[in-house]
Recover the amino acids of this structure.
């Protein structure tokens, strides 16, 4: 569906394209299951390292037809290109920087918190009820950037 | 408004906010400009800034994210809905999100 069609449709808010950047298969599975329970209109896409995440976002290689995510969940410790670098690249890119990016990591380091905020993201601590909270806030209450103009 | 953040004039003793809720339509300097100032300032830009406004215009939503607002919420007119929004901001940002610590972000 073209971005214009999504915008013009009454169902514009029906589907949410969410990109999860996470290398742990266990966390991917938990996140997927949690989304399935709380919001069936989420299309969850998974990239397992930073290089794959950037290829998805820039629609390169196997990702030519990838949708533009409405929302990104990003781990910091990733193989190939780490999450800090992915975040920096997203926020330096005029087209990608409008996509709300939430940092989801086990890191407790204050430096990671400060640096992530400098790059304009949000960071979490616990996994429990996390997906529900993310869904309730980001995918229900928050007005995400309109696809047509930002796509 | 930005006098408070920059601790200017009568605001010299103002604390650094941990978090900001910002309306777009404001007198003197409007919220878009306040947001632009905050996110262009190396020290201030780490303060999570939530846009809470009655505007539902796509242009305002997009512009706010371009200026690096952390999120955009519609301000409901009804009191009960307003309370729900404030509670949800509190739940996500004050309970779940790790805010930057003062010492490091200053």
């Amino acid at each position: 569906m073209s971005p214009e069609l999504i915008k013009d449709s009454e169902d514009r808010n029906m589907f949410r394209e969410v990109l999860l950047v996470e290398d742990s298969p266990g966390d991917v599975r938990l996140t997927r299951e949690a989304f399935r329970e709380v919001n069936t209109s989420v299309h969850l896409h998974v990239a397992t390292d930073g290089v794959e995440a950037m290829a998805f976002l820039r629609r390169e290689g196997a990702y030519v037809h990838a949708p533009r995510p409405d929302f990104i969940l990003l781990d910091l410790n990733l193989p190939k290109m780490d999450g800090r670098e992915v975040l920096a690249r997203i926020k330096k890119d005029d087209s990608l920087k409008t996509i709300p990016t939430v940092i989801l990591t086990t890191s407790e380091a204050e430096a990671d918190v400060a640096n992530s905020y400098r790059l304009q993201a949000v960071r979490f601590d616990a996994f429990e009820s996390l997906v529900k909270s993310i869904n309730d806030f980001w995918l229900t209450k928050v007005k995400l950037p309109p696809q047509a103009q930002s796509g | 408004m930005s006098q408070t953040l920059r601790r200017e004039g009568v605001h010299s003793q103002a604390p650094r906010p941990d978090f900001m809720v910002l309306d777009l339509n404001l007198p003197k300097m409007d919220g878009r400009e306040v947001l632009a100032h905050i996110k262009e300032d190396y020290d201030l830009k780490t303060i999570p800034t939530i846009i809470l406004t009655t505007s539902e215009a796509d242009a305002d939503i997009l512009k706010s994210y371009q200026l690096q607002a952390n999120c955009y919420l519609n301000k409901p007119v009804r009191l009960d809905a307003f309370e729900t929004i404030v509670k949800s901001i509190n739940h996500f940002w004050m309970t779940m999100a790790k805010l930057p610590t003062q010492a490091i972000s200053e």
In short: The two ends of chain B are 19 Å apart (CA to CA). The beta strands of chain B are 20-22, 49-53, 71-74, 97-98. Residues 3 and 11 of chain B are 7 Å apart (CA to CA).
